[in-house]
């Protein structure tokens, strides 16, 4: 009977699998895998086992590359270039939508509302129902300026032409004073230059304004100023030209250049960026030279007076955007107006999605650059939940990051909803609660880096438990509560903390112990710790923010490990250290030390090909003749951290300074990284652990970690707990913001915030030992922790 049914089935319905044959991307070793369509497949395995290489680097990359090729050559020029993945065969692919944890663009004009279309619907709502009526939806947009103009136009009618005078006006909602940014900036001139010096005496303290740089040469050679005259002696006209001059073309050193006053230049180059996205030295300059205050005209709402005057049921659009989303959803449901029924339903549905996904504590005016990686991923999910597309492949990168165990259930429901709409859902995940809902599991390993990249198991969750693989063995792991907790050596008092949603919180954080700060997403954990314990004297704060670095940066350059290695090579061979840097004298002359040649194909996607001169080794041939312990510098950079630790620990290559750094990298679970791997290829959790390894050499007494278990396999969490214990036993105080129950159970002291998120949170609902929290079960965290330790 079944054969007959199968035979009568249309051929088009038989493509139920995504097939991958011979995947070799990064560390994958000829992986063959079949993934069922319209099902939820979870990819598991230790960090660095090849999950992302298979899901993002192979399946999603090929799908996106093929879609990009359907666009015109002109459009392809503006798209990221995707190389064909290393695989023998990929078939059955569908359109892939990647929902990753990359932070959302830190554009100061981008907010949660503009990123999710909720603002667009609100603007239409106010343009229809707002009293008094002030204009079209543009009149409520803080990105549209008001424009007025008048002039003569020539109208052709019949045989003749006629000139008419026309006035026009565009009503925008932008506040004219702050231009829709919401904050006014004031620049302290004394922090930009020393006015007792002349231009020739290098007066500037602005990053990039050096005596021999273009910026200073342009000002000195502009012809407006005397380069030998002290700035304080300038006439009013010279001072205006120096600070405020409008852009003007000048011929300088035979080149046409645009000269502009110093203040507009500084505003464009430094203040147009979001502060969070700046490099540390530029952020330090901006903090020193610029004071940010809420715009006095609009009160920080970004909107002009007309837009703020129009109200629906007593609320204007600025107040609506500042309201917590869970309350705004209730307000929208209270509007009873049949003429905009579909609009209200659409807006209400979007706002309800925020609440459902655990982001009801945000407000629509929250700048998108301030969202954490997990929050950004969930905001991107909201865009896709309302989508009418089906038969799409959704690819998620640890969607439970930053979620309390209480919120993980909601996230699981959303993933299942996406699947039930007829989509294929691929999830890279470590949390057992999310692995449990999978229809199909693909487990990669057995180890990380060169020790991984093979398929360990493929099948159901029950089969995984019985499979004996590393993931299967640890799936039901439960950390036990400590029998004996440490006695604090002192306390760090926090008084009257009121950052964001905190309500005058007073709390004493024990020192000399492992303290875990927990609570549901949005309860105020980061606000309490980062807002009240500033990184600085004695405090080392390690987060998951992107590491500043180009594709030339790697773990060896970032941790300072390369310096002692270069010196050891130089000493052993009697030459200078600069020869052993691919960014300095030792660089291959052909590719300038990049290892690859980048060919820009104009409007088409650029291509990177390994350099033929050095064969991707990055160094000139003469440098590779110098050896240390039988290896050249290129071979050393190709080593994994574990291998290098052994190499520099003993024998001819013994280098204590390098060995110390490598030991720290192994301690934080990064033994599988190769020393020369570009930083741009690291995940958020790997970046944080790399920073932690770097900071461990500092003299700080208090370590603040933000969810260090992100991206860690169940088996690696034990190693992290051991590292935290060693830090505390060496006399440090460790404060961890964390949702992972294993870390909570291992703590000496827990501070639980809540009881809810946003304005329902911001209070300390429990402080004490984990055993007391489990016994009381008085909070959401207590209940979930008690279930976890099976108390």
Automatic annotation (TrEMBL):
Keyword Cell membrane carried by entry: no
GO biological process, alphabetically ordered: DNA repair
Keywords assigned by UniProt, alphabetized: ATP-binding, Cytoplasm, DNA damage, DNA excision, DNA repair, DNA-binding, Excision nuclease, Nucleotide-binding, Repeat
Domain ABC transporter: 176-471, 485-780
Record field: transmembrane: none
Main location (coarse class): cytoplasm
Keyword flag DNA repair: yes
Cited PROSITE patterns: ABC_TRANSPORTER_1, ABC_TRANSPORTER_2
Gene Ontology cellular component list: cytoplasm
Top-level taxon of the source organism: Bacteria
One Pfam family named in its UniProt record: ABC_tran
Gene3D superfamilies: ABC transporter ATPase domain-like (1.10.8.280), ABC transporter ATPase like domain (1.20.1580.10), P-loop containing nucleotide triphosphate hydrolases (3.40.50.300)
GO molecular function list: ATP binding; ATP hydrolysis activity; DNA binding; nuclease activity
Localization in the cell: Cytoplasm
SUPFAM superfamilies hit by this protein: P-loop containing nucleoside triphosphate hydrolases
Membership in a protein family: Belongs to the ABC transporter superfamily. UvrA family.
Protein name: UvrABC system protein A
Organism, scientific name: Streptomyces sedi
Taxonomic lineage from the root: Bacteria, Bacillati, Actinomycetota, Actinomycetes, Kitasatosporales
């Amino acid at each position: 009977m079944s054969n007959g049914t199968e035979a009568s089935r249309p051929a088009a319905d038989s493509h139920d699998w995504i097939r991958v044959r011979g995947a070799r991307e990064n560390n994958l070793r000829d992986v063959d895998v079949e993934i069922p369509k319209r099902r939820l497949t979870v990819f598991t395995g230790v960090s660095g086992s090849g999950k992302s290489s298979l899901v993002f680097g192979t399946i999603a990359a090929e799908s996106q590359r093929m879609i990009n090729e359907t666009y015109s050559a002109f459009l392809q020029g503006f798209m990221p270039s995707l190389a064909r993945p290393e695989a023998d065969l990929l078939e059955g692919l569908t359109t892939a939508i990647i929902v990753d944890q990359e932070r959302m663009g830190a554009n100061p004009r981008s907010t949660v509302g503009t990123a999710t279309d909720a603002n667009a619907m609100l603007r239409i709502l106010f343009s229809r129902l707002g009293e008094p009526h002030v204009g079209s939806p543009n009149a409520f947009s803080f990105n549209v300026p008001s424009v007025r103009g008048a002039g003569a136009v020539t109208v052709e009618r019949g045989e003749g032409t006629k000139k008419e005078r026309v006035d026009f006006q565009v009503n925008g909602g932008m506040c004219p004073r702050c231009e829709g940014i919401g904050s006014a900036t004031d620049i302290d001139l004394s922090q930009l230059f020393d006015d007792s010096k002349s231009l020739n005496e290098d007066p500037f303290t602005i990053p990039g304004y050096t005596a021999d740089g273009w910026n200073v040469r342009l000002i000195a050679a502009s012809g407006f100023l005397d380069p030998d005259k002290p700035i304080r002696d300038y006439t009013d006209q010279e001072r205006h030209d120096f600070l405020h001059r409008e852009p003007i073309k000048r011929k300088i050193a035979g080149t046409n250049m645009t000269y502009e006053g110093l203040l507009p230049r500084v505003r464009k180059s430094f203040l147009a960026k979001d502060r969070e996205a700046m490099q540390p030295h530029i952020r330090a300059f901006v903090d020193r030279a610029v004071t940010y205050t809420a715009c006095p005209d609009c009160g920080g709402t970004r909107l002009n007076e007309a837009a703020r005057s129009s109200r629906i049921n007593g609320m204007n659009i600025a107040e609506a955007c500042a309201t917590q989303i869970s309350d705004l959803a209730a307000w929208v449901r209270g509007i009873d107006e049949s003429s905009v029924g579909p609009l209200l339903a659409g807006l209400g549905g979007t706002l309800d999605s925020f609440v459902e996904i655990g982001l009801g504590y945000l407000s629509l005016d929250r700048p998108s650059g301030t969202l954490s990686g997990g929050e950004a991923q969930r905001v991107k999910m909201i865009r896709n939940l309302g989508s009418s597309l089906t038969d799409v492949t959704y690819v998620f990168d640890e969607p439970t990051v930053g979620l309390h165990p209480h919120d993980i259930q909601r996230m699981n429901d959303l993933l299942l909803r996406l699947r039930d709409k007829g989509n294929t859902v691929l999830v890279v995940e470590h949390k057992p609660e999310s692995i449990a809902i999978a229809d199909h599991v693909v487990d990669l390993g057995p180890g990380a880096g060169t020790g991984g990249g093979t398929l360990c198991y493929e099948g159901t969750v029950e089969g995984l438990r019985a499979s004996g693989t590393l993931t299967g063995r640890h799936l039901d792991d439960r950390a036990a509560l400590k029998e004996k907790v440490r006695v604090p050596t002192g306390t760090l008092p926090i008084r009257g903390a009121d950052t964001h949603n905190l309500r005058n919180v007073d709390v004493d954080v024990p020192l000399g112990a492992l303290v875990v700060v927990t609570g549901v997403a949005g309860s105020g954990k980061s606000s309490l710790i980062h807002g009240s314990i500033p990184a600085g004297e004695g405090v080392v704060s390690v987060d998951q923010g992107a590491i500043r670095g180009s594709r030339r940066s790697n773990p060896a350059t970032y941790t300072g490990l390369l310096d002692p290695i270069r010196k050891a090579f130089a000493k052993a061979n009697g030459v200078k250290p600069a020869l052993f840097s691919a960014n300095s004298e030792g660089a291959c002359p052909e590719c300038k030390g990049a290892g690859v040649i980048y060919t820009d194909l104009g409007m088409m996607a650029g291509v990177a090909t390994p350099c033929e001169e050095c064969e991707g080794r990055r160094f000139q041939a003469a440098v590779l003749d110098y050896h240390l312990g039988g290896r050249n510098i290129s071979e050393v950079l190709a080593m994994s951290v574990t291998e290098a630790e052994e190499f520099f620990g003993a024998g001819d290559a013994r280098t204590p300074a390098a060995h110390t750094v490598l030991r720290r990298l192994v301690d934080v679970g990064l033994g599988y990284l190769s020393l020369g791997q570009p930083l741009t290829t690291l995940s958020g959790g790997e970046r944080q652990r790399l920073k932690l390894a770097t900071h461990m050499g500092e003299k700080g007494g208090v370590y603040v970690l933000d969810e260090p278990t992100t991206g860690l396999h169940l088996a690696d969490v034990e190693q992290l707990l051991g590292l935290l214990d060693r830090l505390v036993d060496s006399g440090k105080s460790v404060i961890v913001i964390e949702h992972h129950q294993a870390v909570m159970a291992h703590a000496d002291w827990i501070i639980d915030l809540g009881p809810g998120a946003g304005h329902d949170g911001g209070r300390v609902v429990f402080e004490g030992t984990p055993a007391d929290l489990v016994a009381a079960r008085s909070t959401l965290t207590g209940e979930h922790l008690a279930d976890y330790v099976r108390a």
